[in-house]
Amino acid sequence: MKDLKTFIKSAFWTLFYQGVSLGFNFLLNIVLARRLGPAGKGLFSVYILTPSLLSMMLSLSMDESHVYFASKGYRVRDIAIISFFYTIISGIPLVLTFKTFPALYAAIFRNIEMSTLFYAILITPLFLLFRYLRSIFLGMGYIKTYNFLDSMRIAALLVFVSSFILIKPDVGLAEKGVNFHILFALVITTILLIPHLKYGTRKSHILNLFGKELKYGLKAYLGITMSFFNRRLDVFILNYFRSPWEVGIYSISTALAELLWKLPNSIAIPLFPKVAREEKKDSTLFTVFITRITFFMLIILAVLMFLIGRPIITLLFGNKFSASFTPLLWLLPGIVFLGTGRVISSYFHGINRPEYGSFFTIVSVIFTIAFDFILIPSLGAKGAAIASSIAYTVAGILAVALFSKEASVSFFLMFMPPVRDIVEIVKRIGD
User: Fold this and answer.
1) Total domains present in the chain
2) How far apart are CA 220 and CA 64, in angstroms?
3) Residue 357 sits in which domain range?
4) What is the DSSP string of 171-235?
5) Disulfide: which of 50, 137, 263, 281 matches 146 by Cβ 3.0-4.6 Å?
6) Residues whose CB is less than 8 angstroms from the CB of residue 351 and which lie 6 or more positions away in sequence, other chains included
């Protein structure tokens, strides 16, 4: 297995920065929970998810295209121009649609004032452009910078939001902090990218490259978008059927469950460009190797969260959020399988078959929507957690099945204890 040591180093730095981001995010959640309570925390969660959701829908997964084509040596200057151009042509119709059909948005994003929602619409292009420009660093192989930018963004979110609500515990002020933080993050990202605009030697006409990126992105789009829905749609459905209080309770459950998500995500991020650069045979063997380790590490982390989840919730967020523990328990099994699927999805993107990821994610979203509408009206946050866990498990199992077929690898091999694999890693690190 080539470059194992280099990959481990990349995964380590990714995990390190995600840990830093996690720390900032946890501090933010504590401040929000203590200052705003469950209902205020719920309203804030819906607000910040709105531009994230809309930018994801508008992106057409062009950020994934940026990673792929920058990895192949296409000029960064051209990719950056495409980023700015597409952000403008997609952002204007979004604002016009909101102004023309405000009732449609009001029906979808319940409990959010229209004036507040308008600001969420306005900052959506900023979220989109930040995603685009940040992804270029990953394609160039600057994994530290790629991860630093996300940590910097969350640090800015913590600083701006906390500064406002420590003065006055008001949801509206917290939402203004969101607006300021993304503008700040985008400026820093642009400044850091400017010195790298000459990177890349493969020339292509802008429109030609845009067509190539659009073709690749559309193959990945359904999978990426549905993956976001898979992990976030329940928040909007919960807000629609129940109340901001339940959203606030559930937001803490998901925040803790997604601690586990950081591990597979830190592995999947450097795996994508690595697979794109290598021969398929080598990348397949490496993906089997790393996926098995990821699966069993997730099991260990899930057991640990089961043991310490309740005291963490009451200690950090207060007794008002004690009800968050039950949904957390229901989420854990699904996170284990979803994390496994996340690693395999990076392999499919690297071999230019992102549509495979789209397939198993779409199936999973169907399960999410069906069970959300069945369980959330009666069970609330607990029902959302059960529905998500079922959907995540389906996604993970389907991902392994598709990988098994594509790579001609035994399905059950992917779930076998990775004792030899761990010994191999120790030996490689020691060399």
Assistant:
1) 1
2) 8
3) 4-430
4) HHHHHHHHHHHHHHHHHHHHHHHGGGTT---B---HHHHHHHHHHHHHHHHHHHHHHHHHHHHHH
5) 137
6) 275, 276, 280, 283
Q: What is the pTM of this model?
A: 0.68
418: three-class secondary structure by DSSP? coil
